[in-house]
Amino acid sequence: MTDVVVVEDEPDIGDLLALYLRREGWRVHLATTGADGLDAIRARRPDFVVLDVGLPGDLDGFDVCRELRQSSDVPVLFLTARDDEVDRILGLEMGADDYVTKPFSPREIVARIKAVLRRSRATDDATSGATFGSVLVDIGRREVSRGGEVIPVATQEFALLEVLVDNQGVVLSRRQLLDLAWGEDWIGDPRTVDVHVRQLRRKLGDDLPLVTVRGYGYRLG
Ligand code: CA
Questions:
Q1: Are residues 108 and 148 in the same domain?
Q2: Are residues 67 and 111 in the same domain?
Q3: Is 0.90 surpassed by the pTM of this model?
Q4: What's the CA gap between 182 and 195, in Å, rounded?
Q5: Are residues 171 and 113 in the same domain?
Q6: Are residues 141 and 114 in the same domain?
Q7: The domain containing residue 173 runs over which residues?
Q8: What is the distance in A from the centroid of ligand 1 to the CA of 67?
C-alpha cells in the first residue's frame, strides 16, 4: 500500500488533501508542524511526502526536507504559497521532486504524486525509450519515429528531449534544462531552451505532452 505523509498546518487544506489521497486507496498521515512531520516520516518510512513550505514552529518545510535528505530519498512534493519560495526550491537544489503553488486543485496533487511515483519506481530499469501517442523516443538509438518513420531531430534537440524523458512529471527550470542538456559550463541565453522546445513541438506535434510552466520552464507528462 502506498503510504503518504502530508505536512500542512492549515487544517482545511490538510483535510482536503488527505480526503483526496485516501480516495486513491493510499494510507495518509497528516502532520501539522515540521517536527511532527519529521517524526512521522522517520517512523512510517512513507512512499511519498507532501510538504508545505510555510510551517509554524522551528522547522519550515525547507528545514524538514534538508533534514530528511540526510537519510532518505523519499520523493517530496512541496506546497508553496509564494514565488520566492519557488525560487528557493528551484535554485537551492532542495532535493524536491516537484512543487505545486497554492491555490491548487487536489486532483493536480494526486496526478503529480502518481507521476513522481511512476518515475521513482522505474529508476531501476534505465530508460531505454518512451512512447507518446504515436511517437517513439528511442534513447539507445538516439532516434525519434512516428509509425516507423524516423523524424529528423537535431543532436541538441534530442539531448533536451532525453532530459525531459528522464524527468517525466517533474518541472524543470530553463537553467536546470541547460545544465542537464547543454552542460553546466555552457554560457548563453536561457531562451535557447525555448527555441529547441519550439522545434520539438513543431516536429512531434501534440503527441508530446510538454507543458510550459510560465516563467520557469517545462514539464513533460
Ligand atoms: Ca502553511
A1: no
A2: yes
A3: no
A4: 13
A5: no
A6: no
A7: 126-220
A8: 18
Q: At 143, which amino acid appears? A: E
Distance 25 CA to ligand 1 centre (A): 25
* Judgement on whether residues 37 and 141 belong to the same structural domain of the protein: no
Residues near ligand 1 ion, CB 5 Å cutoff: 9, 52, 54
Ligand 1: centre distance to CA 16 (Å): 14
- Distance from the CA of 190 to the center of ligand 1, in angstroms? 32
* Helices marked H in the chain: 11-23, 34-44, 61-68, 83-91, 106-121, 155-166, 174-177, 191-204
The cell numbers describing 13, all together, are 487544506
SS3 state of residue 181: helix
Instruction: Give pLDDT tens digits along the chain (221 positions).
Output: 789 999 999 999 999 999 999 999 899 999 999 999 999 999 999 999 999 999 999 999 999 999 998 888 888 999 998 888 887 777 666 778 888 999 889 998 998 898 888 776 655 444 477 889 889 998 877 889 998 889 998 888 898 999 999 888 899 999 889 888 887 777 778 788 998 999 999 999 888 999 999 989 999 98
Q: Is 166 found in the same domain as 81?
A: no
Same domain, 132 and 153: yes
**Is the link from the previous residue into 103 a cis peptide, with omega within 30 of 0?**
yes
| Residue 175 alpha carbon to ligand 1 centre in Å | 28
Tell me how far the alpha carbon of residue 34 lies from the centroid of ligand 1, in angstroms. 10
Whether residues 14 and 57 fall in one domain: yes
